[in-house]
Amino acid sequence: MKAIKNMVCLVDGEHYLPVTKSALDTLDSLEHNEIVAVVFIGGTEKLREDSEEGVVEKLGRPVHFGEDPHKIPYETIIEVVRDYDADVVMDLSDEPIVDYSKRFKIASLVLDMGVPYEGPDFKFYPLSEHDVLKKPSLKILGTGKRIGKTAVSAYAARLIHKENYNPCVVAMGRGGPEEPEIVHGDKIEITPEYLMEQSDKGVHAASDHWEDALMSRILTIGCRRCGGGMVGDVFITNMKKGAQLANEVDADFVIMEGSGAAIPPIKTDKHIVLVGANQPIINIERFFGPYRVKMADLVVVTMCEEPMASPEKVKRIEEYIKDINPDATVISTVFRPKPLGNINNKNVLFATTAPDSIKDVLIEHLEDNYGCKVVGTTPYLSNRPLLQKDIEKYIDEADVMLTELKAAAVDVATKDALKAGLEVVYCDNIPQVIDGDYENLPDAIIKVVDSAIEHFNENP
Question: What keywords are assigned to this protein (predicted)?
Fold first, then answer.
């Protein structure tokens, strides 16, 4: 560990230079802190007749300038941080030179280099990443909640398993176990009754690792987490233990699955990032959306259909991703339900987390492809009181409860259906590529897996 922390400071011309110098001197006086360079990021109000040479002279330190004094010199910031081996970037600038959006952009660029970004009342740190995996791996993360991350994880796990890579999944959730929990999806039969037994024991049997195990029929490891920071770190998690457990189980490839917008704090060889086209565009293009997107080797854009997202919005998202991460493959998709059991000629009550606005599309898909009659739907799997009301409304008309394995799927949907004598069938969500000039999704996923294995072998 360095005895002295190299600091790069960002300053502007909206402060009198003697005031800025006083702030720099104060920072330099701190023990174990040394200002190695200053980046002038704009502003002329308080400069009077000062030239660049005058700024350097008055600040008494190396000062770097961008080409255009009216624009934030993002590239210069990156170059200075790299060239001076900075340990931290301290922002001493202010409005009107930087606003919230510009500061988030600076933060994303600096954090991407593994360097903290600080200011008078904020500190952003790079993601925590424990380097513990002893097998090739990839990380699946998302830009938000309810954008289909677990569905894509399960799809990827099935595909990787089918291609004989022998994977396991390590997933973290807000209802995960106190100690990492192995579910042998490859060995046990996960029935509604079995999940009810787990729920009765106090297990959150609809947690992501149970869904992965049921949908993919592979070994999964469940972990917990609490809190989700703006960059993606969590407050507490036992995922490091889960990753160490993955080293010991019978698996040759590890999929680390995120939770919501929280990112697994485990170093992996490659990354798949999910972006929800249903999200506000500002959450993708601003804040720490770009930070997540730039991590990706493959970006899967989900929910790419109206009314969740217009074709124009999907195109804008695709173009934005390609602009900031030109090396990543971008594939746009929609989800379609796939029952895990036979529902032909049956009256179905369908419970989902998909928004009510898309229910007609899902009903049509189920009835056309699986020969059932959907007598009722509820989009409230994650809202127990409203879910209960919808079940009571439709349960007398149904033969089958068709439900995703999420949220209250076990302790409410499954429980109430079994109590009423209904059959329970769980439902997967399959990503389907929308029309356009895209790589085939299975090929793109396997390409990432092969790349992860290659990276692991080259960096033992």
Answer: ATP-binding, Cytoplasm, Ligase, Nucleotide-binding
